[in-house]
Amino acid sequence: MTDHQPPSGTLLPAPPPRGLIRRFRRDQDGATAVEFAMLVTPFLALLLAILETALMFWTSQILEDAVTQASRPVLTGQALTAYPAANGASANTTAFRNAVCAQASALVDCAKVTIDVRSYASFSGAKDGSSGSNPVSGGTLNTNGFGYTQTGPGQIVVVRAVLEYSLMFTPWSTALANIGPGKRALVASTTFKNEPFVGPAP
What is the pLDDT confidence band of residue 4, given thresholds at 50, 70 and 90? Predict the structure, then answer.
């Protein structure tokens, strides 16, 4: 078997230096950038989801506190003077909504708040009545029939405030939306028995 020799005068390419091959194997320039590109999208999605959820719960807590504070005059009977029946249901509804918003921060958009004040003879009746008038049903917001109703001494009162809350990071917040894309209804409520104040029955 004969060896094949290149023709006389033919130049063979020089083999690459061994050091160059070793450097090529060890070279990791750009690896960090590639790894960062792979991780940055899920990291940002998680970060924005945490921020969105925290902000939503914070707003909900602020609305809960505002409803509790604004409901104190109803509990004590002072609401008979603050929201007299002579003003009409529409005016009292607006006035009570403004009282709720006055206790809340700028996170609560008062223009998107709907309030409901109702009285019942018993706690079981309040439970059934609230369930039957749930403002969030079938993925839509329905506040028909909501408003301010005068209450009397010793009655069970349910006060609710519904905020149509706009989610900030909608691509990452689809799981939080419950009344359409990018929107969630935040419902704050408080239930109590009015004090036996002296006043006309509603």
Answer: low
Contacts with 62 (C-beta within 8 Å, 6 or more apart), sequence order = 104, 105, 107, 108
pLDDT tens, position by position, 97-112:
999 999 998 889 999 9
- Which tokens go with 92? 């009292």
**In terms of Cα–Cα distance, which of 179, 186, 190, 191 is closest to 108?**
186
pTM: 0.78
C-alpha angle 59/63/67, rounded to 5°?
175
Q: How far is CA 169 from the centre of its chain?
A: 11
The two structure tokens encoding residue 2? 């004969």
What span, in angstroms and rounded, lies between the C-alpha atoms of 54 and 47?
Answer: 11
Q: Locate 89 and state its tokens.
A: 């249901």
Give the per-residue pLDDT at 23: 58
CA proximity to 69, closest of 110, 116, 98, 103: 103
Buried b (16+ CB within 10 A) or exposed e, 143-165: beebbbbbbbbebbbbbbbbbbb
